[in-house]
From TrEMBL:
This is DRTGG domain-containing protein. Residues 195-254, 256-318 form the CBS domain. Keywords: CBS domain. The keyword Cell cycle does not apply. The lineage of its organism: Bacteria, Bacillati, Bacillota, Bacilli, Bacillales.
Length: 435
């Protein structure tokens, strides 16, 4: 039987896109307390089912697919530019395909505007109306107003007309930044992207017996299974190690590991993988926010995700990406790398930053480990000390040397030189991510 929380979330999912909701409305419709309704609406906001807009309220929005995450809704634009809705409030949930700067003659401007566009323009009243008739929303910069006719037309067409106090250049910069940030977010693999969903997951119940585990093991050869209660709540995990020496009549709840290490769908794959290495586990349950089992991930799933991510083209660059693009492998020394200190890699004093150097060291060390032993590795601890400051424009050589390698750990020493002079020393302990 589903909980009140889940019933509210299902109710919100079934609402029409663009419909306005409130805590009091949900509480009355589903006969729940306002506190329960408030928590469920917040969860719906985290799941990108609704969007709360100042001076507008909470509205049901279309949940964006990850491949379309770089597209903004007009509601998101409103929040980004701290705007005021002048008209067309009913269209805030819609997604824009592009934005056009209205810094040209009206006829020229209209060649670039089509349905789903956002025209960014000042107090050019004729442009406001023409854009709406072409199916585009309007963002009026400089704090200017729109005419009553334009506001009425916006309401009829359900195309937002938004006013902001920022100038056109600042608004374009802010929207570019938001899209760029979403491109980076799109590239971050989350557990929800790789999990085996609940409907494809073999589960056991607390009142099942070891015989049920053995039967599932014979069919699938999997070494572990999540244990749930009748309502779907995760309560434990049972593995081959737990049932060794137990009779077939023994209850699963007597042999299982309670309160297993788990993650949510919004956890990054990198974080989940690190936990699996750290705890030495091969199977990890994935929970919903209220403790229900959503699926599982395995060590193999994480490894495949890492390998796939390395082959994907990057659209939005993080600081790590910018730093790593400077790295070049030295001929005849495949594990030794060379880079030039560029402005993005410096601190406030204009010398090489600690963060940039640790990023390059960690990557160079991982390359050296991969050449020695095929597989992924995760830095666990880093020691670094500078012997002298490294200035902007300097060419740096990082030479990793594997000191010790066991089944689970690798210790790598680093010498960092510039113009033949030792400028830093470091050491990193890596954990190996074996299959």
């Amino acid at each position: 039987m589903s909980t009140k929380h889940e019933q509210i979330l299902r109710h919100i999912e079934e609402l029409a896109v663009g419909e306005k909701i409130s805590v009091r409305q949900i509480a009355r419709a589903l006969s729940v307390s306002e506190g329960t309704a408030y928590r469920a609406i917040k969860e719906a906001e985290n799941q990108k089912l609704v969007n709360t807009i100042e001076r507008v309220g909470t509205i049901r929005i279309e949940k964006k697919k990850k491949e379309n995450i770089e597209r903004l809704t007009y509601a998101e634009v409103l929040n980004i530019v701290d705007g005021l809705v002048l008209g067309g409030r009913g269209g805030l949930h819609k997604t824009l395909t592009k934005f056009v700067i209205g810094a040209m003659q009206l006829d020229d401007m209209m060649r670039y505007i089509d349905a789903g566009s956002l025209l960014i323009v000042g107090n050019r009243l004729k442009a406001h109306e023409t854009a709406l008739l072409a199916g585009a929303a309007v963002l009026v910069t400089g704090g200017f107003d729109a005419s009553d006719d334009v506001k009425k037309l916006a309401d009829e067409l359900e195309l937002p007309v938004i006013s902001t106090s920022y100038d056109t250049f600042t608004v374009a910069t802010m929207l570019n930044r938001a899209i760029y940030d979403q491109l980076i977010e799109k590239e971050i693999l989350l557990v929800e992207d790789i999990l085996t969903p609940l409907e494809n997951t073999i589960t056991l119940h607390t009142k099942d017996r070891v015989a049920h585990f053995n039967e599932a093991n014979r069919k699938t050869t999997h070494a572990g299974y999540p244990v749930i209660e009748k309502n779907g709540k995760l309560v434990g995990i049972v593995t081959s190690h737990d049932v060794i020496g137990k009779t077939e009549d023994e209850l699963i709840e007597k042999v299982m590991t309670r309160n297993p290490i788990s993650v949510t769908g919004k956890t990054s794959v990198a974080s989940a993988g690190h936990s699996m290495i750290w705890e030495g586990i091969d199977l990890m349950p994935v929970e919903t926010e209220n403790g229900m089992l959503a699926g599982i991930i395995s060590r193999q799933d994480v490894l495949k995700a890492f390998q796939m991510a390395q082959r994907q083209p990057h659209q939005g660059e993080t600081i790590d990406d910018i730093v790593k693009t400077q790295m070049k492998t030295i001929e005849n020394k495949s594990s030794t790398v060379e880079f030039t200190v560029v402005p993005q890699m410096t601190n406030q004093f204009g010398s090489l930053s600690y963060g940039a150097l640790t990023t390059i060291m960690a990557d160079a060390g991982s390359r050296a480990i991969k050449m020695k032993k095929r597989g992924e590795s995760v830095p666990e601890s880093i020691s670094l000390y500078f012997i002298k400051h490294v200035q902007l424009g300097s060419v740096i050589i990082v030479e990793p040397r594997i000191l010790q390698m066991t089944r689970r750990f690798v210790k790598v020493d680093f010498e960092i030189q510039s113009e033949g002079e030792l400028i830093a020393k470091g050491m990193i302990m890596y954990q190996l991510f074996d299959k």
